[in-house]
Amino acid sequence: MEIPQVEAFLAVGTFGGFRRAAEALRVTQPAVSARIKALEDSLGVRLFERGRGGLALSPAGRALRPHAEQLLQAVALARQAVHDLRPQSGGALQIAAALSICTYLLPDVLKRFQATHRKVMITVRSGHSKEVLEMVLRGEAEIGLARSLHHPAVETVSLRDDPLVLVGQAAAWPTRARRARLEEIADRPLIFFDRGSSDWTLSHGLFRRAGLVPNVVLEVETIETAKRMVERGMGLAFLPHLAVARDIRRRRLVAVEIVDAEPLSRSLDVIHPRQRPLSPEALALLHALRAAVSAVEAPPRRRARRRVPARAS
């Protein structure tokens, strides 16, 4: 059993096909097929079976998967242990991050980091989660910062929950009225941001699954623009908790609980390639990130939700 075979196995299991697995691993499709065949021959079992939706893990494949993931994690830790013995230098640190993280988290983190690593040259590039992943896979960034991002070729470290929170203008929502049904929210003016992003898709999906059409009055490009529109009473918006925690604390915005829908769950993640150990500078930044995130007010915990009967049509 060889490491590239295990990586190919996890990639095919994640993407459900050889072509997409090859694209993710940046190798040819025949190379992925050869690695899977060699792994199956060495184990004497079939790891995949074909169904209507494409390839799926066989019973043997499902049994192997958790051990394969542990194996790659152990390899990454071994590489890291050896890499940590190298002498430290100033060096450079390349970071790829989602725009919301660049705006609302990184300034405080990098200020703390640079106080103890003055010789490190830092480069920050922003993009959507998919773009952050691509930069990390191409080696253009040593670490990536995104939300709810997983891929077989990277290690994902979840720092904390960062759900999408429905927020409104504080003056328009007295304390007693800060709970509403999804149907009521759909009728109110809504502001959406960054069309096509995962946050946009997640927010629209909440209404679509309930058979509702949201009353979208504004679509803007950035979280900050959407937040300013909400502050001026132009509508409600689903925004990352990281972006609005300070505004809620200062009572410029209020969080509105939807009583008959599950929260829009997201996590704040750090990713880095499995095969490349982190530099001491990147490990120090990871430590600074954890410290900064622990200092941010945690998202509110939802109470056990009581199902509200649907209103008769």
CATH class of the largest domain, please?
Answer: Alpha Beta
**Number of helical elements:** 12
Question: Taking Cα atoms only, what radius of gyration do you get, to the nearest Å?
Answer: 22 Å
Q: How far is it from the N-terminal to the C-terminal residue, by CA?
A: 60 Å
Count the strands?
A: 14
Strand content: 15-25%
What does the main sheet amount to?
Answer: 5 strands, mixed
- The CATH topology assignment of the largest domain is D-Maltodextrin-Binding Protein, domain 2
Low-confidence stretches: 303-313
Strand order in the sheet with the most strands: 4-3-5-14-6
What is the count of structural domains?
3
Classification by helices and strands: alpha/beta
Question: What is the percent of helical residues?
Answer: 40-55%
CATH architecture name of the largest domain: 3-Layer(aba) Sandwich
| CATH level 4 superfamily of the largest domain | Periplasmic binding protein-like II
SSE pattern = HHHEEHEHHEHEEEEHEHEHEHEEEH
Whole-number average pLDDT? 84
How does the overall form come out from the CA principal axes? globular
